[in-house]
Amino acid sequence: MSIWNYVVTAHKPTNVTHSCVGNFTSPHELNLIIAKCTRVEIHLLTAQGLQPLLDVPIYGRIATLELFRPPGESQDVLFISTERYKFCVLQWDAEATELVTRAMGDVSDRIGRPTDNGQIGIVDPDCRLIGLHLYDGLFKVIPIDGKGQLKEAFNIRLEELQVLDIKFLYGCSKPTIAVLYQDNKDARHVKTYEVQLKEKDFGEGPWLQNNLDNGAGLLIPVPLPLGGAIIIGEQTIVYYNGSAFKAIPIRPSITKAYGKVDADGSRYLLSDHSGMLHLLVITHDKERVLGLKVEPLGETSAASTLSYLDNGVVYVGSSYGDSQLIKLNSQPDPKGSYVEVLESFVNLGPIVDLCVVDLERQGQGQVVTCSGAFKDGSLRIVRNGIGINEQASAELQDDELEETEIAGFDSDAQTLFCHNAVHDQLVQITASALKLVDASSRRLLNEWRAPQGVSINVATANASQVLLATGGGNLVYIEIGRESLKELKHIQLEYEISCLDINPVGDDPAHSHLAAVGMWTDISVRIFSLPNLEMITKEHLGGEIIPRSVLFCAFEGVPYLLCALGDGHLFNFIVDISSGQLSDRKKISLGTQPITLRTFRSKNATHVFAASDRPTVIYSSNRKLLYSNVNLKEVNHMCPFNSASFPDSLAIGKEGQLTIGTIDDIQKLHIRTVPLGEHPRRICHQEISRTFAICSAKYSYNLTSGEDTETHFVRLIDDQTFEIVGSHQLDTYENGCSIITCSFTDDSNIYYCVGTAYALPEENEPSKGRILVFAVEDGKLQLVAEKETKGAVYNLNSFNGKLLAGINQKIQLYKWTLRDDGTRELQSECGHHGHILALYVQSRGDFIVVGDLMKSISLLIYKPEEGAIEERARDYNANWMTAVEILDDDIYLGAENSFNLFTVRKNSDAATDEERGRLEVVGEYHLGEFVNRFRHGSLVMCLPDSEASQIPTVIFGTVNGVIGVIASLPHEQFVFLQKLQHNLVKVIKGVGGLSHEQWRSFSNERKTVDAKNFLDGDLIESFLDLNRNRMEEIASSMEVSVEELCKRVEEMTRLH
Amino acid sequence: MILLPCGQTITCMIKRGKVVTAMGSLLGDWPSYNPQNFSQLRPSDPSHPLQLSPVTYCATHNRTIPPPDQVISTEVTNILLRQFYRRGEAKASTKRSAVDSPSSEHINKQRRGACDHANMCATDSGGNLASGSLN
């Protein structure tokens, strides 16, 4: 790999952190707005459900999200603040369909300690100010005037240092906040303050309440007429408004989210850490609060946000499981639950580990992630491309599929084309004749014969028309009637014809008034009118490779002409149906062999199957053409096949084989979920036993003791069925920390090795752990050996036939020795001290790369002759690492806990020892995601001669459920794309006025520097979303053609 | 009336002699903005979570930059200095008014009284917030 890296998202964040409901896109429409870390999604509530409108990328990690209604306006505006202290107020312009920035700004302070409990951003219910709590001891106010204009912000000193929550109270003449805080004796209290905008200070608030529940963590302000606030604790819920005080005890639980149901604040939904949904009811007589009630409703995914939508339907946004749309019923189901899940939405987050495997052995990587947390834990199998699920194959003697004879067909000649025609007829075209056959009686009805000594080379037909080419550039047009074939036109072209198409894309599905013709010699594609065969337009394709397949098709109502060449390239044009003119020419590379194009329908949409050495499905989404790989190797032909035994199927012709199959939903990434009901933490795959092994934790609630308990397991999972086939329970307090599959010198067996830690409640850092060696015998886990360690075994690596472990601050090498009794044991050979915690370790040859808890990356070397591990070099930055990977012998990749990526390089050729001992930082980039794991591998099919597969890639998984790809580019390509990125930044603006350059700058508590040697693939690939004019603007400043630019960007999209 | 764990709640509510609400009425009468919303939604197969993909928004217009007066920054004066200045201003204004008119003390007193009165009115109309504070 190289230092020039391209970072792109293969799967966008799915962890829902915030949500809110309001009239955003129009005064009369209700919208659900969802924040997924770096993206905002806007949905519309409709009779059919949630209709997704927009996915808005934000140049920042969203810290807070609120809708508010400026005075005198009929629509809500959206307030967003980011973790790097930027904020913006967005408004939807329905006419222009644009997100307009009403206001934005920087709310950072030069001095201040960032809050421990997250940032708080709230809007006064009477819209007089926005309040922000970003630094301990400071409350920032952005005043809003009577016209909804924001004013200069100012800070107010807040005495409470450990703030847990702040909310504005309703119905106060002066804006008033309630602050839930913890004092230095760990007791929790609520205090209120009036915000004096003129004096820029706090005034004494109307009430306070001391000594709350020790677990109080959430404040809910109650609207008028009741006013006051609800304080949610772990054991009690309290209502207080200065005079009335009501409290009720609850079963111990940690409430993570609430959602207001009624506008008057009588009912609230609460979701706790285990996903139990409760209804909190304030009983009142419209003036006074009489009491509180809490009723359990049922279980959902553990919520991070709850939004009541409409008519008893609620959105449950989750960080730990799939988000859901639920309905609250008034009657319980048989299990006693009042909750009905209407829809659930995939969430891969948090991805704590992943592995890349080729389960179907087709040369295509699949990612298997440890996703979700606690009870919502699952494995997710993420695969790129579209799967064909084989139903039958003609090689097999299948009862449902057998050969049939059609008497009217010429079965001795090679068929060029065969199709269903009007009036229940069939056409067959061979080199000598066109035959029309009755589909039910199968007898010949009519025949058109090529003139003597002339043979038909290429032919095509639709239900009522036939176009065929005979040698010498002759083109013949024939119309099909009932038992009739009428030759209507015959012309001669100057060159031989290579391909034809008359697929109807106009209003009449049985008849086309345009014909596409591909030509030899001048390498062109021509459009002719039908029935006159007059040439409308000619498009030269350039190069020396002839067009092999042309096809008209309409995607989402837009007519296209596709033209595939003999070398795997594909052109697409937009067709003007009335005039027959072509526009918006684009070219991409699909494979290396000739392509045959064919349309098919699935779920009421047209798709095109491009059969070649790299079969591809072409489809359109949001009026953009997308290309998805198919999980098949080399396909020659495809046609739709719909019969009683095989409904909605495809017939696929491969070399010497016919396959009937159904097709997956058409989308780029396919995700299969294997729910575990427990929390998977580490995963690895073992080829030989065809199994996965995972370390997982099961959480349960003990009814007798009233406590939550956790038990840790090593589980063995079949890699085809994903069933758990074996388990090994770890000791009390023992956690699985690492797992690998490995073999040892002088032992032919392959083992699973598991590293553990005893997480004792009284210890800050584990002082004891184990390494367990398992063999898979008869599909079960057999413990072969175990070795106690003096700390947590954070990682394991197979290392030259030995086992390398990172144990607390030490790197330790073990060899696998044979005892006298024939059993094996791990014996310590050597080690290396000097880390804070050696959390992440990768090895290559004798080199060991260590990612430390807080001391960035260091490079160690194992010296076999001395039996010692020594430090060779280190990065002297104080990066707190979250993952490391070795890109190549000299370049190492790291992710750190301020959401940055960086690369360092070994300086073996440096002049001095000092320089050689220093890892040079060569690349820096703000990813905006917390990376938990890097793995070498690719999500796409590896073809030996395709350009894209020459680019080495690393896949990463993040807390927000992002799967990303880092691709190392050749320098020339990097420079080209860097120039493109530079030009794109001028055209594609940051939503909310946020700057791309600032967003991608490497930034942590210690430094902020511009990104270098990393490119933002998401931005670069959004080039393809631009309209033609914008593309041309960029292409001209890049001094290349739009076609070339599109082709190069499309190539990058094929990396994921 | 529905029999649930809430049976217990209902009895205890009755004992306390307060408003009795059955589970049925707690869980009904959901607020409705547009009765049509979700009326035609059929539950999907829960074992196949949806992968929604809305159109990715791509801003190429010039209105991502707010009006110049709406680019907000924080006041540069720090809190301590602001307090000093304010005290200074307050002192200066009292001094000035003292110099300006010898009878200002009397007027000042009256003004403060009027102010207090106004404040009390405001809090009263604000829903009895001041009453019972800190008691």
Q: What would you say about this model in short?
A:
Chain A is mainly β and 1056 residues long. In chain A, 5% of the residues lie in helices and 53% in strands.
Judging from the principal axes of the Cα atoms, what is the shape of chain B?
A: elongated
Shape of chain A: globular
SSE string of chain B, helices as H and strands as E: HHEEHH
Query: What is the residue-mean pLDDT of chain B, rounded to a whole number?
Result: 65
Largest beta-sheet details of chain B: none
Number of strands of chain B: 2
Strand order of the largest sheet of chain A: 78-79-80-1-83
Oligomer: heterodimer
Strand residue content of chain B = under 5%
Report on the architecture of this protein.
The complex is a heterodimer of chains A (1056) and B (135). Chain A is mainly beta and 1056 residues long. Helix content of chain A is 5%, strand content 53%. Chain A has a five-stranded mixed sheet with strand order 78-79-80-1-83. A four-stranded antiparallel sheet of chain A has the order 2-3-4-5, with no helix packed on it. In chain A, strands 6-7-8-9 form a four-stranded antiparallel sheet, with no helix packed on it. In chain A, β30 (353-357) and β31 form a beta hairpin. Chain A is globular. Chain B has 135 residues and is an all-alpha fold. Helices cover 44% and strands 3% of the residues of chain B. Chain B has four helices and two strands; from the N terminus they run ααββαα. Mean pLDDT of chain B is 65; it is low at 1-22 and 103-135. At the A-B interface, β4, β5, β8, β9 and β13 of A face α1, α2, β1, β2 and α3 of B.
